[in-house]
Design goal:
Blueprint (H helix, E strand, L loop, with lengths): L5 E2 L11 H13 L9 H21 L7 E4 L2 H12 L5 E5 L4 H12 L3 E5 L9 H7 L4 E7 L11 H11 L2 E5 L18 E5 L11 E5 L37 H17 L1 H20 L4 E3 L12 E5 L4 H12 L1 E2 L1 E3 L4 H7 L7 E4 L7 H19 L1
Parallel strand pairs: 1-11, 3-4, 3-5, 5-6, 6-7
Antiparallel strand pairs: 2-8, 7-8, 9-10, 10-13, 12-13
Helix pairs in contact: 1-7, 2-7, 3-4, 8-11, 9-11
Bound molecules: pyridoxal-5'-phosphate.
The site of pyridoxal-5'-phosphate (PLP) has 13 residues, from helix 3.
Length: 386
Amino acid sequence: MTPSLIYLDNAATSHPKPEAVHLAVMAALQTGGNPGRGGHRLALAAGRQVLAAREALAALLGAPDPARVVFTSSCTDSLNLALKGLLRPGDHVITTAVEHNALRRPLAALEQQGVAVTWLPVGPAGLIDLIGLRAAIRPATKLIAVAHASNVSGIIQPIADIGEIAAQTAVYLLVDAAQTAGAVPLDMAAMGIHMLAAPGHKGLLGPQGTGILCVDPTVALRPIREGGTGSRSSEAAQPEIFPEGFESGTLNVPGIAGLAAGAAFLQAQGLEKVRRKEMALTGALADGLRSIPGVTVYGPDDPTLRSNAVTFGVAGVDPGEVEELLDDEYGILGRAGLHCNPGCHAWLGTLPAGGAMRLSPGFATTAREIDEAVRAVRAVAAMRRG
Ligand SMILES: Cc1ncc(COP(=O)(O)O)c(C=O)c1O
């Protein structure tokens, strides 16, 4: 990256990636081989590499079965597979009114096809009301689908408590871990999560174009895409077997190799340590921004209750202008607007302003960069006042 740039858009995609990720992508490209397609040595070696990646990701996320770690192209792709592979007309699903469009839009489309959806509001602290959640469950309820952390407010939901309710009521739990996988310790089995959707390119530090859906063995998921799987080739019907029945078409092997290197990097660091560093940076950023006259920081003050997304408004300045000034004048890269999540902006009251500005530190961010970002926002806010 250009040395003078300060990248604080890790909630969109992490950058820079560890050097090991670059090397793994290059090595996969240089080696070649199409996994599950043929029996020559390069095809087999690529297959072994993909299997090792499933194992590394399952270990990192507490997924019960590496064979049920399905590779996708993004978290959006994973959520579409989870929702459309499980739900049928007549089923009922419970979600919240503050979900990212990656969850909201497929659910809205399914709603048009006869799936009943309850859009639960969140409480004053942005949390799901567990009593309200329990009360919303009815005989046709098949699924609870929620994000672990909001990409706007950063608020982390009590997933283990929701998992307990799901277990007690025999309802599946799908978690959109886009903002937490690789950044906040997660244990799918211990938290009662039946399906975990994650991008490979954010906290897991892999390349763009990668994602995963981890599926518990109790979930009877159907493929939503048909095609070659490298197995049962004589049959016209799509084999409903994990993982290849859900991964028709050639896999993104260089991307998966990079993702496995990202997972290995995180495993070596330890997720607790990664989370501690991120909380320190996020806390310093939010505190620094809060101290600026005219700046409103959204989400909880306590960094243990939030992810790395720090969203804020500057009085009298359009969020898009804040983004532009920070980039053009200070080389600070963040994201303004609705962040594909109008529901959360409606809840925050930032919809009429066209959303807000978001800065999000990552594993490579330094304390000096946070100080510079706070200084720059102070200057932008002062520019408008002056
Ligand atoms: C909460 C949430 N869910 C889903 C997504 C979609 O992820 P992807 O871009 O990998 O499809 C994002 C991306 O920002 C997100 O923040």
